[in-house]
Amino acid sequence: MFKRFYTIVLLIALGLASCKKDKPAPNNNTNNNNTGNVPTPTTNRAELTKDSIFLYAKQVYLWNDAIPDYSVVKPRDINSSSNQLDNFNALLFKISQYKINPLSNKPYEFYDSNNDNISDEPKFSYIEDLVASGQIAIVNPKKSSVNLNGEGNDTGLNLSYFGSNNSYIMVIRYISPSSPASSTSLTRGDTILTLNGRAFGRELNSNFDNDIFSIVSALESNTVTITGKKIGTRSSFSYTLNKNKYISSPVLKDTVFTETGGKKIGYLAYARFSDETNSVPALNAVFQKFSSAGVTDLIVDLRYNGGGFVSTAEHLVNLIIPSQHNGKKMFSEFFNATMREGKAIILKNQQRRDQSGNITRGNYFDGVDYSVAGNTTNIDKKSGLTNVNRVVFITGPGTASSSELVINSLKPYLGENLKIVGRQSYGKPVGFFPIRIDKYDVYFSMFETQNSLGQGAYYNGFVPDRVVLNDDHSKNFGDKAELNIAQAINFIKYGSFSSSSVASTKGTSVSSSSLNSMKSLDTKDVFSREFKGMIDYPGRK
């Protein structure tokens, strides 16, 4: 239900815009592995786009070996919607469901819909309508409020909801740095009572399923009037926020904890693996602070980080990993056999583009090496912490792709000194680069990553070493009493987690029992405003 709403809102907006049209791939058997089983000629634009989606999938999709012939898939027969984007998505979904994961007996791209009964979207692959952006990896509005260039165009409110479906509360998950909301007193954990004059929540015994349309409409509007109660004091607040463009730092919070005996622990809450221009200076500044302070251990909070650029993930690994491992393997990317063997000649139709979507030079076939050796990244230690001891990652359902890549890449070198606290991560060990078809960028799952020990395939996500069932909104990022952070500090100090449901820091106790009555309904990150994906460009290395 929720995803369908986002699609409706997006399509209304897209109908008002236009963009330069790229030609679909030509319909000939040089683009198809099934010689003699090719599309018949057509001049229908939608049919050409469907054919192209199929033809590209047959060569570049990670699990292309499971895709049947064109005569079986019948791309042009997918016409149940009057909106062609819906039909293209339906085709992509059909293609994504052929390959079965033997461990789960379900498709690798099976999307566990949980509460909203949506089962017709791939878990990893997706299509972006370039009317919304025209840039590579811009991440359209239904995926994020801050894109992978660090550009925001909203009020900066990011929400969660708790309770039961008929008796829930909404709270602020976080405020995007430099956004309109960041200039107010609003903070993580504040309770939302009304949006644009409409009341929500348990006081009304209202139903969340009935309210979601109004909530999202308010968040996407140009002006949002918000009222509620401050965390702690319960004092009332009221603000009118105007949607605006801004550049947001990917760092939500960084600080240094000084423990008994002078032990220094660095804490970083990181929102997204944005492009190097946005992320690298911010990360370098944080780790320079850590280094100057004498930090020996780390807590990296990725609970809302859905991923982004592989190059930025590499940079974070290099900042964290001990210097003694310089030059060793970090991870490898595995493309399908068609691409590894240089047979994906359809990629000759894909011009190289810069981050703004402008054609630069060449294409994604000629001279591009898709072998494992050609797509192996080694550790390149130039800065950061030279000898980190223990590292704890905080994860949640929104932790995906590049975030999981960082954790998996560090595991072989940190061993038992690397732990995970929080909730199970999303499970996305695959990445992609955009395939331009007409006025769309199609993000097929294209490669799977493995660390230096050949470990990968974490399609169910990482299970935490210490599970904290509920996201502790009662404390802000960087608060030592926050349940996840307190557990992380306990491990760093003592080598074990607290067995109690009470996390105690400096005499202040926070009981998780107070959160049990506010069970998170956001098991699928309905309000997540972060992109989930892992983007890498061919020939970058």
Automatic annotation (TrEMBL):
Signal peptide extent: none
UniProt biased composition (Low complexity): 26-43
Alphabetized GO MF terms: endopeptidase activity; serine-type peptidase activity
Occurrences of domain PDZ (ranges): 145-200
GO cellular component: a single term: outer membrane-bounded periplasmic space
InterPro entries the record matches: ClpP/crotonase-like_dom_sf, PDZ, PDZ_sf, Tail-specific_protease
A Gene Ontology BP annotation from the UniProt entry: proteolysis
Annotated segments matching region Disordered: 22-43
Source species, domain of life: Bacteria
Pfam families membership: Peptidase_S41
Annotated protein name in UniProt: PDZ domain-containing protein
Organism: Pedobacter puniceum
